[in-house]
Design a protein that fits this description.
By secondary structure, the protein is of the alpha/beta class. It has two domains: 2-44; 50-166, Response regulator (Rossmann fold, 3-Layer(aba) Sandwich). Helices cover 37% and strands 26% of the residues. α3 runs parallel beside α4 (107-115). The radius of gyration is 18 Å and the shape is globular.
Protein backbone atom coordinates (compact mmCIF):
# COMPACT_ATOMS: atom_id res chain seq x y z
CA UNK A 1 0.00 0.00 0.00
CA UNK A 2 1.29 3.44 -0.90
CA UNK A 3 0.29 6.92 0.20
CA UNK A 4 0.26 9.93 -2.05
CA UNK A 5 0.63 13.21 -0.17
CA UNK A 6 -0.51 16.37 -1.94
CA UNK A 7 0.02 19.82 -0.41
CA UNK A 8 -1.99 22.83 -1.50
CA UNK A 9 -1.74 26.60 -1.00
CA UNK A 10 -3.84 26.47 2.17
CA UNK A 11 -1.08 24.55 3.99
CA UNK A 12 -3.10 21.36 3.98
CA UNK A 13 -1.72 17.94 3.12
CA UNK A 14 -4.18 15.54 1.54
CA UNK A 15 -3.44 11.86 2.07
CA UNK A 16 -4.52 9.48 -0.68
CA UNK A 17 -4.33 5.73 -0.29
CA UNK A 18 -3.00 4.15 -3.50
CA UNK A 19 -3.87 0.44 -3.61
CA UNK A 20 -1.01 -1.85 -4.54
CA UNK A 21 -3.21 -3.46 -7.20
CA UNK A 22 -2.60 -0.35 -9.30
CA UNK A 23 -6.24 -0.17 -10.36
CA UNK A 24 -5.88 3.55 -10.88
CA UNK A 25 -8.46 4.35 -8.22
CA UNK A 26 -7.34 6.61 -5.38
CA UNK A 27 -9.05 6.41 -2.01
CA UNK A 28 -9.15 9.58 0.07
CA UNK A 29 -7.70 8.74 3.48
CA UNK A 30 -7.68 12.13 5.20
CA UNK A 31 -5.94 15.42 5.46
CA UNK A 32 -3.84 17.29 7.97
CA UNK A 33 -2.36 20.71 8.39
CA UNK A 34 1.13 21.12 6.92
CA UNK A 35 2.53 21.48 10.44
CA UNK A 36 1.38 17.92 11.08
CA UNK A 37 3.85 16.28 8.69
CA UNK A 38 5.04 14.01 11.50
CA UNK A 39 1.60 12.38 11.39
CA UNK A 40 1.95 11.72 7.66
CA UNK A 41 5.36 10.15 8.25
CA UNK A 42 3.85 8.01 11.01
CA UNK A 43 1.11 6.73 8.67
CA UNK A 44 3.62 5.94 5.94
CA UNK A 45 5.88 4.29 8.56
CA UNK A 46 3.47 1.37 9.00
CA UNK A 47 4.08 0.18 5.45
CA UNK A 48 5.99 -3.10 5.37
CA UNK A 49 6.12 -3.32 9.18
CA UNK A 50 6.08 -7.02 10.11
CA UNK A 51 3.54 -7.83 12.81
CA UNK A 52 3.00 -11.27 14.39
CA UNK A 53 -0.41 -12.07 15.94
CA UNK A 54 -0.55 -15.23 18.08
CA UNK A 55 -3.99 -16.31 19.27
CA UNK A 56 -5.92 -19.57 19.32
CA UNK A 57 -9.10 -17.68 18.38
CA UNK A 58 -9.55 -17.51 14.63
CA UNK A 59 -11.81 -14.47 15.07
CA UNK A 60 -9.15 -12.50 16.96
CA UNK A 61 -6.43 -13.46 14.45
CA UNK A 62 -8.55 -12.45 11.45
CA UNK A 63 -9.78 -9.21 13.05
CA UNK A 64 -6.25 -8.10 13.97
CA UNK A 65 -4.90 -9.21 10.60
CA UNK A 66 -7.55 -7.30 8.64
CA UNK A 67 -7.13 -4.13 10.70
CA UNK A 68 -3.35 -4.16 10.40
CA UNK A 69 -3.22 -5.06 6.71
CA UNK A 70 -5.47 -2.10 5.93
CA UNK A 71 -2.82 0.08 7.57
CA UNK A 72 -0.09 -1.37 5.35
CA UNK A 73 1.43 -3.88 7.78
CA UNK A 74 2.67 -7.29 6.75
CA UNK A 75 0.90 -9.67 9.15
CA UNK A 76 1.90 -13.20 10.13
CA UNK A 77 -0.42 -15.25 12.35
CA UNK A 78 -0.01 -18.33 14.51
CA UNK A 79 -2.46 -20.49 16.45
CA UNK A 80 -0.21 -21.10 19.46
CA UNK A 81 3.26 -20.55 20.86
CA UNK A 82 4.81 -23.60 19.21
CA UNK A 83 3.72 -22.56 15.74
CA UNK A 84 4.72 -18.97 16.50
CA UNK A 85 8.31 -19.75 17.50
CA UNK A 86 9.19 -21.22 14.12
CA UNK A 87 7.41 -18.39 12.27
CA UNK A 88 9.18 -15.78 14.41
CA UNK A 89 12.57 -17.24 13.52
CA UNK A 90 11.60 -17.30 9.84
CA UNK A 91 9.93 -13.88 9.48
CA UNK A 92 11.66 -11.78 12.20
CA UNK A 93 8.64 -9.59 13.09
CA UNK A 94 9.04 -5.99 14.28
CA UNK A 95 6.38 -6.46 16.99
CA UNK A 96 4.48 -9.44 18.41
CA UNK A 97 0.95 -9.59 19.86
CA UNK A 98 0.37 -12.76 21.89
CA UNK A 99 -2.72 -14.11 23.64
CA UNK A 100 -2.15 -15.36 27.18
CA UNK A 101 -4.50 -18.34 27.33
CA UNK A 102 -3.61 -20.80 24.56
CA UNK A 103 -3.21 -24.57 24.41
CA UNK A 104 0.20 -26.30 24.45
CA UNK A 105 2.37 -23.21 25.02
CA UNK A 106 0.62 -20.26 26.67
CA UNK A 107 1.40 -16.58 26.13
CA UNK A 108 3.57 -16.24 29.24
CA UNK A 109 5.76 -19.18 28.21
CA UNK A 110 5.92 -17.93 24.61
CA UNK A 111 6.93 -14.43 25.72
CA UNK A 112 9.61 -15.81 28.06
CA UNK A 113 11.10 -17.93 25.26
CA UNK A 114 11.14 -14.95 22.88
CA UNK A 115 12.77 -12.68 25.46
CA UNK A 116 15.38 -15.31 26.35
CA UNK A 117 16.53 -15.47 22.73
CA UNK A 118 19.33 -12.96 22.10
CA UNK A 119 18.13 -12.28 18.53
CA UNK A 120 14.56 -11.36 19.58
CA UNK A 121 15.18 -9.93 23.06
CA UNK A 122 14.50 -6.37 21.87
CA UNK A 123 11.38 -7.26 19.86
CA UNK A 124 8.33 -5.73 21.58
CA UNK A 125 5.86 -8.35 22.83
CA UNK A 126 2.34 -7.14 23.62
CA UNK A 127 0.20 -9.46 25.73
CA UNK A 128 -3.49 -9.83 24.78
CA UNK A 129 -5.98 -11.11 27.33
CA UNK A 130 -9.56 -10.93 28.51
CA UNK A 131 -8.14 -11.14 32.06
CA UNK A 132 -7.35 -7.75 33.54
CA UNK A 133 -6.10 -8.39 37.06
CA UNK A 134 -2.97 -6.87 38.56
CA UNK A 135 -1.58 -10.41 38.92
CA UNK A 136 -1.93 -11.09 35.19
CA UNK A 137 -0.30 -7.78 34.27
CA UNK A 138 2.55 -8.36 36.74
CA UNK A 139 3.15 -11.87 35.44
CA UNK A 140 3.34 -10.45 31.91
CA UNK A 141 5.98 -7.93 33.00
CA UNK A 142 7.97 -10.63 34.79
CA UNK A 143 8.29 -12.67 31.59
CA UNK A 144 9.32 -9.56 29.64
CA UNK A 145 6.19 -8.25 27.93
CA UNK A 146 6.32 -4.67 26.72
CA UNK A 147 2.63 -3.87 27.14
CA UNK A 148 -0.65 -5.53 28.12
CA UNK A 149 -3.86 -5.01 26.11
CA UNK A 150 -7.23 -6.19 27.36
CA UNK A 151 -9.69 -7.84 24.95
CA UNK A 152 -11.73 -6.68 23.26
CA UNK A 153 -9.13 -4.32 21.80
CA UNK A 154 -9.72 -1.57 19.28
CA UNK A 155 -7.92 -0.57 16.11
CA UNK A 156 -6.53 2.40 18.05
CA UNK A 157 -5.17 0.05 20.76
CA UNK A 158 -3.25 -2.01 18.19
CA UNK A 159 -1.97 0.98 16.24
CA UNK A 160 -1.06 2.83 19.43
CA UNK A 161 1.04 -0.10 20.63
CA UNK A 162 2.76 -0.33 17.24
CA UNK A 163 3.49 3.39 17.09
CA UNK A 164 4.79 3.45 20.65
CA UNK A 165 6.91 0.30 20.60
CA UNK A 166 7.75 -0.64 17.01
CA UNK A 167 8.04 2.77 15.36
CA UNK A 168 9.51 4.43 18.45
CA UNK A 169 12.65 2.27 18.29
Amino acid sequence: MYYLLIANTENMVYIWNVPTCRSGILFFTGYLHINGTAMAEEIAGLNDLKVMVIDDSKTIRRTAENLLKKEGCEVVTAIDGFEALSKIAETKPDIIFVDIMMPRLDGYQTCALIKNNSVFRETPVIMLSSKDSIFDRARGRIVGSTQYLTKPFTKEDLLGAIKEHALGK
